[in-house]
Automatic annotation (TrEMBL):
Coiled coil: none annotated. One of its GO terms (cellular component) is membrane. This is CSON013388 protein. GO terms for molecular function: phosphatidylinositol bisphosphate binding. Pfam families: CRAL_TRIO. PANTHER family: ALPHA-TOCOPHEROL TRANSFER PROTEIN-RELATED, LD40136P.
Amino acid sequence: MKTKTMTMQENSENTSELAPIFQHIALNYLREDENIRTQALEQFREWITKDPNIKNCRLDSTFLLKFMRTKKYNISLAYSILKEYLSVFRLYPRWFEKISVDDQLLLDFFMDGVLIPLPDRDEDGCQIIIYNLKNMNLDKFCSQEFYRLQVLVYHIFFEDHETQIAGVNVCINFTGFDMKRLAMFSLIDFSNFGRIVRHAIPIRLAKLNFINMSKYYKPFYEVVMSLMTPKLKKRVHSYKNFKDLKKVMDLSILPKEFGGKQELSDVLQQFVKKMKSRREVIRELGDMRIELPKHTNNDWYLNNNSSKIGSGMVGSFRRLSLD
C-alpha cells in the first residue's frame, strides 16, 4: 500500500473551535489561518503521495499539522522532519518499534510516576509534564523502558491540537535522583535520543525547567544544552525547588507531592484512560514505513560534533562515584 489515510480525528482542520488562547498563538506565532492551513495540507499530502520512498504514512490533518506547526508552516522543513521521523522507527527499533498502550511493562513503569503528564495546562496553554526521576525502580526497569515510555507519552500529547500549538512545559525534578539511577543511562544513548528528539520528532518545547539540579548533574545539563539552538536555550530555567517554581506556575495544578492539590494516582489514571482511548493511533505507528538507502545506519542523523559530546560525557559519568 502506498499511503494510508486515517479517518480518526479528521474533524479538526479548523482552529475556530479551540479556546481563544490557542487561536491567538496559532495566528500570531505560527502564522496559521484557515487559508494557509488548507493550502499547506494539500501540498503536504501531495508531496507524501508522490514520494517513492514513503510506502505508508498517515495523511489525516491531525498527524500532518504537528509537523507543519513545529516548523511554522515551512513545508520543506516539515517534510524533512517527517522523513526523518519515519526513518527512526526503522533505525532505532528498540526505542520506537511495537509501542503499545497495552504494554504492561510500560504501564507499570508509568504508574510508578516517573513521567507525570498533568491534566491542567499552564497559563500559556502548554501541556505540563513532570519528570520525577527518583521514582525509577532499578530492580524492575532499565533505560530502554524510560525512552520507550517517552515515545508513547509524547505521541499521545501531540494528537491534541492544543499541544501542537502551545507546546510542552517540561519540568525535570532531580530531587532524590541519585548516582545509581544516573549510572543506568548510557550517555551515548542519551545523546543520540536527544538528537532524535531535536531532528526527527515534531515537538514544540515551550519551556524546560530544571528543579533542584546539583553540580553532579552537570554532564547531563551539558548534553541537553548542546542539543539546543540559541533560541531554545532562552527557554531553559533552573529552580531550587517546586516552591521556587511558584514564580512562573500555579502550583495548585500540581500533585500534592509537589505542593499542589491533585492526587498523583488520579493524575496518572486519567492519562492512562487517555492513552487507551488512542490505542488505534499508537498501533498505526507500526504500519508507517519509509524505504531507506542501503548504506543508511543508525548514525545517519548525527553531526560532526556528536562523537566529541559522547566521549566527553562518558568520561564525565565514569568519574562519578556510586553510593
